[in-house]
Design goal:
Helix content is 30%, strand content 16%. It has 403 residues and is an alpha/beta fold. Strands 5-6-7-3-8-9 form a six-stranded mixed sheet, sandwiched between helices. The N and C termini lie far apart (122 Å).
């Protein structure tokens, strides 16, 4: 499932350039014990450059200095000796850090946040607007295959699912330099293939990727250049073609030929080469391709899963400028275009509280008081002399009309 080539006319079809993104000279790191005595020489006088748009591999067995080199590039460790520049600045330059995306060897995430909350948190650290955070989070979750389980807490995820959400958080800021430390650790074969498709998509967009891994098959599929570390030192460096080509061996591949033709070809070859040095067999595909083909056929009739699913698309804001792209590249484009962002669903207003029942009689009485009708003057009732007190009698006499 290789990633398709971009349109040659595209401005990012050949994004690799001579621009140096990372420059390392004489890098040395010595870990010391409590009494400041040298304990371990992790990196020993390492020199290399990484150019824009390049996928650069750091290879080596466990303990060879790969992760230490990555932490030095990020400014998480101080070098004992040597010089590092990232985008022309120190690794501790704050504005430079905003252009870097990092997936550590272990995913350190807040276990009580769900996937969307996790991406919202990291997006807020880069001062992304609320709408942009929501837009990118949705596309990244689709890309890493977690859109169906985004309400689950990260602490409930398996290791492979945590690697997926860790990758999403590393890309939330649309970084120019992506550093991936053992990115396929814990991923199933489908996730590994999608990770490699993503790395190729980032490179085609002109982004720089530094990949640290000891899984050689993953590196071979995506890296332009590699260095092989052992004991903290560079043992080999170059392009994969330079390192892997066997100049003293030739391979001829043809369609199926009649047996007579094969015999004639072999007879001619054996005039110059010993018979035990010639081999004829059928080519085979690798196990990854076969596995993905079986899963693809099974998925067409399979039930839903509660775990991670195939993302199949790369977030749109991480990709641009291609005409024909595989599914793994088709999300990278949308996130980079704010005008193409899907509208963010507004929160539903709370339902109004129930209105208590009103006594109709009281309401009518209150209405009459609020808007009284003009009352006609009514004559005062004529008092009864027998029931009046002396004061009332005096008041009544004053009210009587003169005859």
């Amino acid at each position: 499932m290789p990633v398709a080539e971009l349109n040659p006319q595209s401005p990012i079809a050949n994004p690799k350039s001579a621009e140096v993104v990372v420059s390392v000279r004489g890098l040395t790191k010595v870990f010391k014990d409590f009494w400041n005595r040298p304990k371990a020489l992790a990196v020993d006088n390492v020199d290399f450059d990484v150019r824009r748009g390049e996928v650069f591999g750091l290879l080596g067995p466990n303990g060879s200095g790969k992760s230490t080199t990555v932490k030095l590039l990020l400014g998480l460790l101080y070098p004992t000796k040597g010089h590092i520049e990232v985008f022309g600045h120190s690794p501790r330059h704050v504005q430079t850090k905003a252009r870097i995306g990092y997936l550590p060897e272990e995913s350190y995430l807040y276990r009580y946040l769900n996937s969307r909350e996790t991406l919202n948190f990291f997006g807020n650290l880069f001062h992304l607007s609320r709408g942009e955070r929501a837009n990118r989070a949705g596309q990244l979750l689709e890309m890493v295959g977690l859109s169906q389980v985004y309400t689950r807490s990260v602490g409930e995820f398996s290791k492979g699912m945590q690697r997926r959400i860790g990758l999403a958080q590393a890309l939330i800021n649309d970084p120019d330099l992506v550093i991936l430390d053992e990115p396929t650790s814990g991923l199933d074969p489908i996730g590994c293939r999608e990770m490699k498709d993503l790395i190729l998509a980032l490179s085609r967009r002109g982004k720089t990727v530094i990949l640290s891994s000891h899984l050689l098959a993953d590196v071979e599929d995506v890296c332009d250049r590699v260095i092989i570390l052992y004991g903290g030192k560079i043992q080999a460096m170059g392009t994969l073609k330079e390192l892997l080509t066997e100049p003293d061996t030739l391979r001829i591949t043809t369609p199926v030929l009649p047996r007579e033709t094969v015999e004639r070809v072999l007879e001619m070859i054996r005039h110059d080469v010993a018979a035990d040095q010639v081999r004829v067999d059928n080519p085979t595909q690798n196990l990854e391709s076969y596995f993905l083909d079986v899963v693809q056929k099974a998925r067409q009739a399979a039930a839903e899963t509660s775990g991670a699913v195939s993302g199949a698309r790369v977030a749109a804001y991480l990709r641009a400028g291609a005409d024909e792209r595989p599914p793994a590249e088709k999300i990278l484009e949308r996130l980079a275009l704010p005008q193409a962002a899907q509208p963010v669903a507004k929160p539903k207003p709370p339902s109004p509280a129930p209105v208590p029942a009103v006594d109709a009689g009281k309401l009518e009485a209150l209405t009459r008081v609020a808007t009284p009708a003009p009352a006609k003057p009514t004559p005062a009732p004529e008092p009864k002399p027998a029931d009046l007190s002396k004061a009332d009698e005096k008041l009544a006499s004053l009210l009587e009309k003169p005859k």
